[in-house]
Amino acid sequence: MSQITTTSRWTPGERLAGRVPLPEPAAGAPIVGVLALQGDVLEHLRALRRCGAVATEVRTTDHLDAVEGLIVPGGESTTIGKLLERFEVMEPLRQRIAAGMPTFGTCAGMILLSDELEQERVQPLIGGLAVRTRRNAFGRQVASFDTGLEVAGIDGGPMDVSFIRAPRVEAVLEDEVEVLAEVDGYPVIVRQGHLLATAFHPEVTGDDRLHAAFVAQVRAARRA
Ligand code: GLN
After folding, report:
1. Residue 80 included in any domain
2. Which of 1, 62, 101, 192 minimizes the number of CB atoms within 10 Å of its CB?
3. Both ends of the chain: CA-CA distance in Å?
4. Which atom of ligand 1 is nearest to the CA of 80?
5. How far is the CA of 77 from the centre of ligand 1 (A)?
6. pLDDT tens digits for 116-126?
7. Gap between the Cα atoms of 12 and 50, Å rounded
8. Ligand 1 atom closest to Cα of 73?
């Protein structure tokens, strides 16, 4: 078991805005990793901590062996995919996912989990999620937007989410893929068994409901 890295006790902005410490994880808390090769790792680690998980960075196969669930963060899917191959984590990660490890991809993470991409250029994908995704489907950086999104199965009103050069799902390739939310008629949250993916960033707004649901899923997978 490798060293568990915990992060700062502060959530983004809180250091400046009133210092709300993160809770210490309880004994036996689920250990959830964030793939930490590139992208917005810290925000996910903090969201997981707020949801009661032990949150740890995953860069190597040893790190991967130590976690019970994994978030693949937003960032640049081409870079993350290439680094997964270079550091020889790609194949072990595919095996863990195939063996049922709960995995949550956000934005670039959704792209990486997709089985197919709607583009000519080939880039390394993790795969596993039976969807065809299109990168930057909402336009360039200037077209990024925040919105309130109704999510099936998430109570308490619309979620606060941020679409940043976001992808969207162009096609669902298998019946078992559930669509939990749509924008303009395109799926932006999909779930397929132990795999969850969002086109947006849920980790930058402080609305932790999807992280909480994912942590609950990791706990449930441990019991199963
Ligand atoms: N546009 C990026 C990509 O294609 C994803 C952007 C993001 O993760 N915010 O990888």
Report:
1. yes
2. 1
3. 22
4. 10
5. 6
6. 999 999 999 99
7. 12
8. 8
